[in-house]
Design goal:
820 residues, alpha+beta, five-stranded antiparallel sheet, 24 strands, globular
Length: 820
């Protein structure tokens, strides 16, 4: 208990953390709040035995409640509806844990007792907070409650991606749907994903269009030839770019992500030449989705670069097309001679291009190929329809098709043919019906048949561990997700789409219950181009990239800002996020990194020389002006006002999205901030903010937010570096309530890095919320702490965080609520 008290005292004195985080941190073991791996809250709380709990209540809680609280919190008219007079022992706290958490929150934050009333001392406050948190957390952890996820429909992004992978057409039908509601910061939360009559009409309308498009030849969906030289959007550390990519190191790579509109045959083209050195020619490996499709020697020089063409069938959707240099050469014998400049063999990529979809008599869509030749015999046609629809249902419903499922759809197909429609049109009607079914539109998660409780075992060899079910007492309160539900959770978490065939096959064999197999699949999926969905949908909301499209900086004040620069800002942050995912880097790179991704316009905006051309490439950062998401123009722009920066918005964003410390609500009875009717506020922005903070009711929150925001004042409202605001020199210094001092963004990042465990906890909280599709509950605290511990133990790598989430009880299990 002594260590918990010391930590709580430190946190209370800082004033930086709000009540909810104070409660969490109070239960952490030694060192955890300082960025070091440690045991979980559950372990800390469980250390207190019943006698200690009772003694602590009698010594640290009951006297304070009777002295400072019961005067207002007694009987039917108790303030805030919380009657504390009935609490006679520790059991009363456990019976009403939510109310006591609120009590501890308000005492920790200083909201209670109200101003002007007698109040406990700092040590007395910390003792009560520590006892309440340790006691309630221990009780919550004993429940081992995995939580409950409301039945979820597919949101717009998930619908688009699912019909793309199901039908082989990337036509984005859900773009016409109403916007999805947002809960807990994300638009995939089951509680807010309802279906209105209008949305149901949209589902019916687009399902038929998708089914029809799925059988059209690719050249009927698009112009016959699509030729697009994609921008080089990926260059690894062995590469550099100017007017072309230069690959100089082993496994140096240049590539791009490209959205193939339909499943069809394409021509992938790499235009390359070599810088000769040594006896051999340069060798390039051409890859699609990190899989080798060709290896080619390059003989041509810079005056006559030659194209290498590869014909290949590509599924619809986003794929990664790249070239890798496999045989670098360095000749030390030429040092100091005229040949010195030719001592390194290099592979130069002049361009990557994609041609297609290609015309041809066999250019059938994937589903048309699967359906095959239509026989004239009715019985044979019915058998073909049944086989086709059984496989379609398996993928559409994301679980094995039942006889009842297939019989209904075959009936629709037969009925359409009886009304004079063709066989293919009948199949399209059946597909339309399937895509309007709740079994397609909703992610229905069920348990393992016949198993309501099980013991999970782990073996060193994948496939050898799983569930022991024999002879176990049933627990109707929760269940393990079956393999197909687990496959869908994994695929919609990392890809925002349906499972692929590898996941389906593993689910059919029951192997996803093995934690080792589940983790291996998660790591495989993170390397797949479809993990771009994490950038689009998770990072797009966590980092507010979606809001960048709607901000409108004053064009008179910020003349260099236009839609092109807006898109470049967004691209930088997306590529930065994707690099951390794809290269499995430390998530601490989000706070500070010595690299980013720039093109010439954005580099000029940042004042970084040596970057030419419109293509984005990895840039090694020097100096201390840039590094990490806090210094990227996308975030700095969305947290500003149209005419000026906003230290409040920037500070609030850091607290909520990097430190996981949202501000508490304003104390009761505090009026909105006054406009100061005596006259306008005058002086610099910092001086005006200090006048705002003169209101004692506002000072508590602003003392936490404003210093962080002022630490970023060297960036104007569109993220451009400045040393003066007009004629006034920028003062980017600050002092946090815990006494941490800094001057400028570089020192501010150092302060944040010292709070790295708070950041890991915050990111884990948000990523777990996104993965589960629900807000986290009080019983999730122990699981979340275990995830943080596991992530830090594995070097804070992104894959370690994902692996810890997918192996957690809330991800693999679900509470069975009443009525289910």
């Amino acid at each position: 208990m002594k260590n918990a008290k010391v930590r709580t005292r430190a946190l209370l004195l800082t004033g930086l953390l709000p009540a909810t985080t104070l409660l969490y941190a109070a239960a952490l073991p030694p060192g955890h709040a300082h960025g070091k791996p440690a045991g979980g809250a559950a372990k800390s709380a469980a250390m207190a035995d019943p006698k200690s709990v009772a003694a602590g209540f009698g010594h640290d809680v009951l006297p304070l409640v009777r002295t400072y609280c019961v005067g207002c919190h007694t009987g039917k008219g108790a303030s805030a509806g919380i009657d504390l007079s009935i609490a006679k022992d520790a059991s009363a706290v456990l019976k009403d844990r939510d109310s006591w958490d609120r009590v501890a929150q308000n005492i920790a934050s200083g909201h209670m007792p109200p101003k002007g009333s007698p109040a406990p001392s700092g040590p007395q406050r910390e003792a009560l907070v520590t006892w309440v948190q340790n006691t309630t957390t221990a009780a919550d952890c004993k429940l081992k409650d995995p939580g409950h996820v409301t039945l979820r429909r597919l949101n717009r992004a998930e619908y688009n991606n699912t019909v793309r992978d199901l039908c082989g057409v990337d036509i984005h039908p859900a773009d016409a749907f109403p916007n999805d509601d947002v809960g807990y910061g994300f638009d995939n939360i089951g509680d807010v994903l309802s279906i209105s009559p209008l949305l149901m009409e949209k589902y019916i309308a687009v399902a038929g269009k998708v089914a029809h498009a799925a059988f059209q030849n690719p050249d009927e969906l698009l112009p016959p030839i699509l030729f697009e030289p994609p921008r080089l959007t990926y260059l690894n550390q062995g590469s550099r770019a100017g007017d072309h990519a230069v690959l100089a190191a082993l496994n140096a790579e240049a590539g791009c992500d490209y959205t193939f509109p339909v499943a069809a045959d394409y021509l992938l083209r790499a235009v390359a030449y070599q810088s000769q050195a040594g006896p051999d020619s340069a060798i390039m490996q051409i890859k699609l989705d990190d899989k080798e499709i060709a290896v080619q020697k390059v003989f041509s020089g810079p005056r006559d670069p030659k194209p290498v063409d590869i014909h290949i069938s590509v599924p619809a959707g986003r794929h990664h097309f790249s070239v890798v240099f496999t045989n670098p050469f360095h000749d030390d014998s030429t040092t100091g001679t005229r040949q010195n400049r030719n001592r390194d063999r290099k592979l130069n990529i002049k361009a990557l291009a994609i041609v297609g979809p290609l015309r041809g008599p066999n250019a059938l869509s994937p589903l048309a190929k699967q359906l095959g030749t239509i026989p004239s015999d009715p019985a044979a046609r019915s058998a073909i329809a049944r086989k086709f629809l059984a496989d379609f249902v398996r993928r559409a419903y994301r679980r094995p098709a039942t006889k009842e499922d297939v019989d209904k759809l075959v009936h629709y197909a037969d009925l359409a043919q009886g009304q004079g429609e063709t066989f293919q049109q009948g199949v399209e009607y059946a597909m339309t019906a399937a895509m309007c079914s709740p079994k397609f539109l909703f992610r229905i998660e069920t348990d393992i048949p016949g198993v309501t409780n099980a013991v999970r075992t782990t073996a060193k060899t994948p496939g050898k561990s799983g569930l022991k079910t024999a002879g176990l007492k049933a627990d109707a309160g929760k269940f393990f997700l079956n393999d197909y539900a687990l496959a869908s959770r994994l695929s919609y978490f990392l890809w925002s789409t349906m499972p692929d065939e590898e996941l389906f096959n593993l689910a059919a064999k029951g192997r996803l219950q093995d934690p080792l197999v589940l983790t291996a699949q998660a790591k495989r999926m993170l390397k797949d181009p479809r993990s771009r969905a994490l950038s689009d949908n998770f990072a797009g909301q966590w980092l507010q990239l979606r809001s960048l499209d709607s901000v409108s900086p004053d064009p008179q004040r910020f003349t260099g800002f236009d839609d092109g620069l807006r898109q470049d800002m967004k691209t930088e942050t997306e590529m930065f996020f994707q690099a951390i995912v794809r290269e499995d880097r430390s998530i601490l790179d989000f706070l500070d990194a010595r690299y980013t991704f720039l093109n010439e316009p954005l580099a000029k905006h940042y004042g970084i020389a040596g970057v030419q051309g419109g293509d984005f490439r990895r840039v090694t950062l020097t100096g201390d002006q840039r590094g990490g998401i806090l210094t990227q123009a996308s975030l700095l722009t969305v947290t500003s006002n149209p005419t000026r920066t906003s230290p409040v918005k920037r500070g609030k964003w850091v607290m909520e999205n990097l430190l996981g410390t949202p501000l508490p609500p304003a104390p009761p009875g505090v009026p909105p901030l006054s406009d100061d009717n005596k006259g306008p506020l005058v002086g610099t922005l910092r001086q005006r903010m200090e006048q705002h903070r003169a209101n004692p009711a506002c000072a508590t929150c602003h003392a936490r937010m404003d210093p962080i925001g002022f630490g970023l004042e060297n960036y104007d409202a569109v993220g451009k570096w400045r040393v003066a605001d007009g004629d006034t020199p920028v003062d980017a210094s600050g002092v946090l309530p815990d006494g941490s001092k800094f001057s400028g963004p570089a020192q501010l990042k150092q302060v944040l890095m010292r709070k790295q465990t708070l950041f890991v906890h915050c990111l884990a909280d948000k990523l777990m919320t996104y993965a589960l599709g629900r807000g986290l509950e009080r019983t999730d605290r122990c699981n979340l702490d275990d995830i943080v511990k596991s992530t830090q133990k594995d070097g804070d790598r992104f894959s370690a965080l994902v692996a810890a989430i997918v192996q957690s009880h809330p991800f693999r299990e679900q509470r069975r609520d009443k009525g289910e």
